Amino acid sequence: MNTPKTLSLGSKTSGTAPTPTASNQPTAPLTLEQQRAQDAWNQCASYTKEHVNIAKGLPALIMNSGLMQVLAFCHEKGKKEKGLPNEKVATHLRIWLSQRFKNIAPDANFEPFMQSLLKANPADYQAITTEAFAWLRWMRQMSSARVKQDPKA
Fold first, then answer.
1. C-alpha to C-alpha distance for 11 and 18, rounded to whole angstroms
2. pLDDT recorded at residue 48
3. What is d(CA 91, CA 78) in angstroms, rounded to the nearest whole number?
4. In contact, 50 and 85? CB cutoff 8 Å
5. pLDDT of the residue at 116
6. Phi and psi angles of residue 115, each rounded to the nearest 5 degrees, phi first
7. I want to staple 92 with a disulfide (CB 3.0 to 4.6 A). Which of 43, 114, 121, 153 is the partner?
8. Stretch 49-58: mean pLDDT, rounded?
């Protein structure tokens, strides 16, 4: 009779690699989801509660008005008052999208970025918008988790 072989994780007799330890971390490349999460985590380090609220609201704004319109709105608000949270979150989004898509202006500055979107074919524009939603999902979660909440609020 053949008995099924059992696999023991980390066992030297099973032929599998040992479970990673602190000194033996896996070297597999990060998934796209992990990259989004890491970028959102890094970018929201200096966010306030207002940034978090903006990050939570941007997906709905994009759904209702479109990516370019929302980026223009955030940029306009940022011009009125330097360092406004709308522009900061939008800038972080532009940086991420510029890194992900070769057909987008690599410097993520507002004007060249918008020109790139204007010239994008519909399929590329849709992919860019989809990626914006995916990144914003992480930004909403990471910024909310990372920002210290005011106990009085």
1. 7
2. 92
3. 10
4. yes
5. 95
6. -60, -40
7. 43
8. 94
- Tokens at residue 125, please? 């524009």
The angle that helices 67-80 and 49-65 make with each other, rounded to 10 degrees, is 140
Question: Any idea how long the chain is?
Answer: 153
CA distance 70 to 63: 10
- pLDDT confidence of residue 12: 36
Percent of the chain with pLDDT over 70: 76
What class, spelled out in words, does domain 32-146 have in CATH?
mainly alpha
Angle at 147 between CA 22 and CA 66, to 5 degrees: 105
DSSP string, 40-103: HHHHGGG--HHHHHHHHHHHHHHHHH-HHHHHHHHHHHHHHSTT-HHHHHHHHHHHHHHHH-TT
Extents of the domains making up the chain: 32-146
- The DSSP secondary-structure symbol of 105 reads -
Q: Which residues of 93-105 are buried (b: 16+ CB within 10 A; e: fewer)?
A: bbbbbbebbeebb
Average pLDDT, stretch 93-97? 96
